[in-house]
Amino acid sequence: MSTFHLPDVGEGLTEADVTSWKVAVGDTVTVNQVLVEIETAKSLVELPSPYAGVVTALHAEEGATLEVGVPLIDIAQEGEAGPAVHDAGGSPSAGAQAPAAKGSATTAAADAAGSDAAADGSGPLVGSGPVADAVKRRPRVRRGVTAAPAAAAAPEAAGAEGVLGEGGTPAASGSVPTPTPVDRTVAPGAARPLAKPPVRALARQLGVDLAKVPASGARGEVTREDVADYAEGRLGSRAATVPAAAQPAPAAATQGALSAAFGGGGWEAPEGSVDVVPVKGVRKVTAAAMVSSAFTAPHVSLFADVDATRTMEFVQRLKRSRDFEGIKVTPLLIVAKAVLWAAARNPQLNASWVDTPQGAQIHVKRFVNLGIAAATPRGLVVPNIKDAQELSLKELAVALEHVASRAREGKTQPAEMRDGTISITNVGTLGVDTGTPILNPGEVAIIAFGTVKQRPWVVDGEVVPRYVTTVGGSFDHRVVDGDQCAPFIADVAAILEEPALLLD
Angle, nearest 10°, between helix axes 224-239 and 250-261? Predict the structure, then answer.
């Protein structure tokens, strides 16, 4: 039997999440057949089989996080006997011989001793083999909710005059009754009242039975106002039967309960109203990178409003061009070309801050690996286009679509996100005009490109409709100052205002 251990599929990888198994125990696999899909730092990776044979064990469930080097899958190669096959949970798979288990009759000795030992419960049970236990769930416990008493106990539980005090004991004669816990038992055939979780929480706070509250909401839903009105009316009517000396202030009591229920002191989230999402995969790595960048590189941000009308006209001409037939062309293409143009004119922005044993250094790059921030269902990834400064406009358009499509499919590999030098985030696709992006770790500049829409603009003293956008950027203030960032933003804006400058 051969064991395939989780490999390091990217430089410095320490762990990965098992996303989905492509094989099952008992399957016959060939060399290079995809066994499993894992999620690494920021990408999905398919692991091929290094062996040919039969899968005998999966060592992890889908969703599990494994460290590099731990066993991933066992494969019995041709000629190998191999142990009994097991699934990812460690239980014998269908049709496999399971080892003897305590409490099951699997040996002749157990059968022989069964009749005597079973009498005192100390010996193995005789049966047809292990049977899965029925699924059992812990009873759900709610604060302030008690189970309905048995019918026979009802008279005793009612206490004097049917009023219960705190803890379910009969209230003292003449004392002010307190709200009783709401009985959540629903009679057979009775419909559970419609109400949102916050409304149910309010009802619990006020001791109100939702089934008795007249509903005024859509589709017969009980609202907060319904509960508050019912509680106030109930307290008011009950106060008439209480001696004056013992009467509470109904309005004050209700107001206090409402204050607590609406966020005042002592409020607690209703059970089951908080969804817990484990931080792992892309989100875990992105969070760590953003914290490191935000608290390592002091950010400075600049913005410029730009008349991008000629860029929009240029994009339309490219779309109609036979040379760009079948190629996706968007304003982002012109922004990318503008950033490359500006980086060539302001090389100090295409750099990185490096701490060495000899002291801090600034490394100015003579190449541009252009990062494109991509929002995917799995989180934010920033693949980069290597040596983007060498690409023609058409080649750049093809490269942009390539990195975007791979990101959407979750196929971006770790190598595609390493060694970036400067990045672009297209916040305009989210309907946002601008923003203050956080630097991709190791880079000095990131450009934010906002929505492009028609706005009133002054041209030659006249107000006319023009396509306007906002270009912003964040920069590492350790490496560059404002007077170096401003020319860079101005150069990007200049290309968007007049793409013909790219021909210079």
Answer: 150
Region at 87 (left for phi over 0; alpha for psi -120 to 50; beta for the rest): beta
Residue pLDDT, tens place only, 327-360 = 999 999 999 999 999 999 999 999 999 999 999 9
Q: pLDDT of 259-272, one tens digit each?
A: 555 555 556 767 77
* HEC per residue, 385-407: ECCHHHCCHHHHHHHHHHHHHHH
> Beta strands 71-77 and 53-58: pairing type?
antiparallel
d(CA 104, CA 93): 17
Residues with catalytic roles: 477
**Cα separations in angstroms, 245 against 170, 176, 232, 316:** 21, 10, 20, 83
pTM of the model: 0.54
Domains within the chain, CATH numbers bracketed: 2-77 (2.40.50.100), 194-263 (4.10.320.10), 282-503 (3.30.559.10)
Q: Which candidate, 59, 93, 91, 98, places its Cα nearest to that of 75?
A: 59
The number of angstroms, rounded, from the C-alpha of 158 to the middle of its chain's C-alpha atoms is 50
**C-alpha distances out from residue 489 to 365, 368, 372, 454, 463, Å:** 19, 17, 17, 21, 25
